[in-house]
Specification:
TIM Barrel, 40% helix, binds zinc ion, three-stranded parallel β-sheet, globular, mainly alpha, 243 residues
Length: 243
Amino acid sequence: MVTPRFVWGATRVTPGQFFKHIDAARRLGFRFLTLSDYLACSETSQCLAVTFDDGYESVYQYARPVLNRFNIPATVFCIPGYTGQYNTWDVNIGWQRFRHMNWHQLHELQQDGWEIGVHGLSHRDLTVLESHDIEKELSARRIVEAHLGRCSPVIAYPFGNVNAAVWPLCQTAGFRAGIGLGIRRDGVPPEYNIERVGVYLFDTARSMREKILAKNKRFYHIISNIMNVCSNGSVIVKKSSWF
Ligand SMILES: [Zn+2]
C-alpha cells in the first residue's frame, strides 16, 4: 500500500518513500514491465515488474502519479467483490478502513498501460476453502474480463497462500501462473508459486537496491516470510471472528 496515512503494521510505504524506491530502481537501469510481459520476457535479469495487491484507491491516488511520471506500467491485483468499497474483508485493527478502487479507476490504469489481475473474489484464503468455494473465488477473473475486457492470466493468491489442491483449480480457471511471496510449498509447480519481494515501511533506497540486485537475498527472504506470517495472523483472527 502506498499511503501517507498512518497504518498499523509495516505493509505500506509513504508516497515519498515510493518515489525514492522507484527512482533507485530506475537509476540501476532496469526496464519496467507489466507482470505478464515480465513473465513472457526471455531476458528478465534487467527487467522488473511492480505489483500491488488488493487494489486500494491509494494506488490510484499516490502510486499512479509517480509511475506515470516515469512512464512505468505496473500490475494491480484487485478484489472484484469489493471494488469501490471499503476493505471490510480485513480485520479492523485500529478501526482503519481503506477504499478499493472502483471499475472506472481500474479502467483508467488499464488505459495508462497497467495490467489488472485478481486477488480472489473476496480475499479469502484459498488454502482453507472447499473446491466449490475456491472456484467461486476464481470466478473473479470473469468479472474483471466483463468490466475491463481482459484480465491478467496470473493470480495473486490472497495472503500469498497456495497449496497442491489450489493450483490445479487455478489452472482450470484459466490462470497460467500464480504469485505469492516465494515461500516453498510442496506439490506446487514453480510457475504457480512465483516469488516476489515485499517492500515495507522500513525499506530504504539502499535496501531496495539490494533487493533488486538480489544481494543479502537470504536476509530479505526471512523478512518477507515474517511479514507474511503477520498477514496470515489476520486470517486467523478473521476466522475466529466468524464464531
Ligand atoms: Zn491482499
